[in-house]
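Below is a filled-in request sheet from our internal design queue. Each sheet records the structural input a requester submitted and the sequence that came back. We keep these sheets so that new team members can see what a complete request looks like end to end.

REQUESTER: design group, bay 2
PRIORITY: normal
MODE: inverse folding
CHAIN LENGTH: 296
BACKBONE (tokenized):
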């Protein structure tokens, strides 16, 4: 029976570390790091995500700046706000909550976020830095997956890692982070032939598909580590992309849903906001930590 990877506990540890680091940073005479969230429109789920991020900031001593624009805002208004936040010294990190209303091109707006404040790690510059193994701010959910692997001491060097999913948000960056840790990485997607056979090779299997319980127990190599990024709302409640019951009989380590990868995203956002503040203040060590995953 697989051992559970407790994402809630690890997330709490990371938040506690960030809280202590923020306190030390402020004691050294620096301003509190600041996170600006930009929410456009009234999507209830997005409003909950943003308010959770703001609450988490307050808990660790990061100042929150919450911007809520009406659903009928014009693209130019959001562009101006992002530019203003880019120039505001109190703001260390900027987060544009997606999805945006139809008339707003959210993915284009993401590219306008000041690179030094890109705490979501989703701008083309951050993606390019990650692809090249250069220091930069890494996307939060993928770096949360790596943090879980690190804290549970899962060997990555030379390991076969299979990532199911190739989105810019999860699949591609998590694959790049695993590669930087010297895993042998295979990325699968909807056109992959015999997905089950490819998954069966994995010492570390990351499922980021968005299809409820698609990955079955007999796709898993005995003793493998399974990280389930999926969050799917079904009639039976929240489930991942992995069929947890059958998978946990075969895997060595596995994340539950909920309580696995989910809680890590906000923790990594807080850590990124502190890193961004330190890097903006010229702290070279922060810039190097930003390269996490590119260790020799
Ligand atoms: P996405 O953009 O929809 O990407 C899904 C990927 O899965 C695509 O690359 C797609 O392949 C692939 N795929 C779809 N059907 C497949 C199949 N039958 N066989 C193999 N591959 C298949 O989703 P995402 O944004 O990466 O999110 C993935 C999941 O993670 C979702 O459940 C989402 O809710 C969850 N998520 C959780 C967090 C968190 O925990 N905080 C954060 C982000 C996302 P193609 O490229 O060929 O279409």
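RETURNED SEQUENCE:
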């Amino acid at each position: 029976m697989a051992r559970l990877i407790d994402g809630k506990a690890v997330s709490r540890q990371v938040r506690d570390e960030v809280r202590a680091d923020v306190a030390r940073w402020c004691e050294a005479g620096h301003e509190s790091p600041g996170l600006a969230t930009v929410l456009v429109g009234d999507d209830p789920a997005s409003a909950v995500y943003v308010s959770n991020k703001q609450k988490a900031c307050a808990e660790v001593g990061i100042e929150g700046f919450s911007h809520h624009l009406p659903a009928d805002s014009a693209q130019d208004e959001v562009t101006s706000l992002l530019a203003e936040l880019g120039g505001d010294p109190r703001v260390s990190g900027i987060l544009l909550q997606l999805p945006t209303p139809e008339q707003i091109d959210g993915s284009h707006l993401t590219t306008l976020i000041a690179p030094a404040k890109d705490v979501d790690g989703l701008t083309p510059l951050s993606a390019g830095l990650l692809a090249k193994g250069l220091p930069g701010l890494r996307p939060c959910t993928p770096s949360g997956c790596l943090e879980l692997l690190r804290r549970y001491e899962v060997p990555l060097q030379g390991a076969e890692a299979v990532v199911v999913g190739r989105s810019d948000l999860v699949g591609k960056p998590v694959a790049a982070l695993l590669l930087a840790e010297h895993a042998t990485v295979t990325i699968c997607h909807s056109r992959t032939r015999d997905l089950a056979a490819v998954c069966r090779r994995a010492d570390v299997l990351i499922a980021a598909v968005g299809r409820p319980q698609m990955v079955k127990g007999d796709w898993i190599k005995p003793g493998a580590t399974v990280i389930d990024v999926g969050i799917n709302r079904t009639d039976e409640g929240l489930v991942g992309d992995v069929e947890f019951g059958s998978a946990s009989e075969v895997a060595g380590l596995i994340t539950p849903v909920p309580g696995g990868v989910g809680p890590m995203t906000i923790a990594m956002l807080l850590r990124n906001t502190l890193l961004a503040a330190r890097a903006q203040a010229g702290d070279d060590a922060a810039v190097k930590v930003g390269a996490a995953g590119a260790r020799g």
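SHEET NOTES:
- The CA atoms of residues 94 and 166 lie 25 Å apart.
- The two ends are 34 Å apart (CA to CA).
FILED BY: M.R.
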